[in-house]
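Support case: 5'-O-[(L-methionyl)-sulphamoyl]adenosine complex. Customer-provided input:
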Amino acid sequence: MFYLTTAIDYTNGSPHIGHAYEKVLADVIARYRRLRGDEVYFLTGVDQHGQKVQQTAEKEGVHPATYVKRTTKKFSNLWEKLGVRYDGWAETTDDRHKACVGAILSSLKESGQLYKKSKKDLYSVRQEQFLTDRDRNEQGEFGPEWGEVIEIEEENWYFRLSDHADWLVSFIERTEDFVLPAFRRNEVLNALQRSPGLDLCISRPKSRLRWGIEFPFDPEYVTYVWFDALINYISFAGYQSGSGDLPDFGKLWSENDRRPVHIIGKDILVPAHGIYWLIMLHAMGFPDDQIPQLLVHGFWNGLRGEKMSKSLGNIVDPSELADKFGVDAVRYYLVRDITTGKDSDFDLDRLLMLFNTELANALGNLCNRALNMSQNFTGGVITTTGELTADDLALRESLATSLADYRAAMDEYDISRGLEAINRHVVHCNGYAERMKPWEMNKEWKTSNDPALKARIATVLYHLAESVAHAAVLLSPVLPEASAKLAAQLSLPGLEDIKLPALAWGLIPDGHAIGKPKPVFPRIAPPEQE
Ligand code: MSP
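Agent response - structure generated as follows:
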């Protein structure tokens, strides 16, 4: 079983392009693994507790529960619109999740991992956390990201994080691939070196924050939002649930033959996932081979690399974008114009250019040509038995190379490189069509009636159509609907059930009646300049 999760999104606002990227990336990976033949469980959801939610709800004059219900809808509606198909949906206000967090707190307390103490410390109101010296910038100050910093004296519950710091260092040193891409490993190790011996404050007094999960053994406190949120990866996977409507935890996680994969952005690797979460699992008794792998993606920035922010007014609304340019263009762009792990600048011109060049012109044109000419020159019937020339063999070779490159790239979660591989073959096919010129052969045949010429036309069109069939299969994780449309036009509904290990030349049987073309990727006209 391939158990895949994304971060759960804060519900104190609306989804932006960064949220959409992560969910589409996860959806593409989940669909790709299914295409490989794996059994997949994909969990995503929303993070509904915390100070920010409480504050925004107060500002809007509604109860936090009403507020998160409303904002949660914005996220789930967007995933539906973008074709993000998940198996499990995590909402942290769900009673089953609350029960799981409570049970974990109690058991950590019983095993001596929690203690209560009073502490006077600096606190960031915006980030909802106590600050330490490692949070100061090079000038020794707390940067603007922390917002207002105040001093608070408070009694709270602490988790003995520091007891496990040595284990974490040794785990990271032993486990090369615990984080992908590997260059992120040092970020975790450096953070551990900078601040060894610090425990984590995991409670908030109700006098300050009510909107959270109550401590089962100390009802004047609620749980720190990160401690609560991280647990979603196991609570909704059925950890100690006894609830029939949650998955079987053993199947998903503990008796699984591969470690779960958490997809997260680079901002939440340190300390939340790389330190807190791994130590939480270890403290709960998870063995090393059950510690999940972290796939860390980069950020979408505004043009010229500036951070997307409300104040700069450069936040991109993915829902609007899909309404304007279509879901395919948005999904394609989000995984095509970024290398997994790196950052990219959001650029509408590139979104249109990539759609128009690689989909409308290259693949759309190939499909249109192959089907149109088959209808016009061979009565829509594919013949697979013609003699092969060096050009045909080169085309098959190009497909085999593209397929191998695609698999290697997709196995490494490098979707952009996977798409490049498909595109290389599509470009090869269009070049082949230009060189073979079946339309001229057909003109010649009309005057000569030479059966060898007719056979040659059929062979060329077969090679084009077979390539479209392969492209439809390979593209299906990224553009499932477009891929289904291609399969329908080829009259090959069975393409949707093909698994990668069985994908080989010969998808179209001899004598197959092919369908009629209908544009799948209509060119997008650039919007009028305002
Ligand atoms: N609620 C926490 C995660 C808890 S996981 C147990 C959170 N939420 S978030 O809404 O701020 O971010 C959700 C995800 O979106 C994170 O993985 C984050 O890295 C990602 N992104 C937020 N802005 C982004 C971009 N501009 N670009 C790409 N991804 C971005 O953190």
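The chain has a mean pLDDT of 95.

Case will auto-close in a few days if no follow-up is received.
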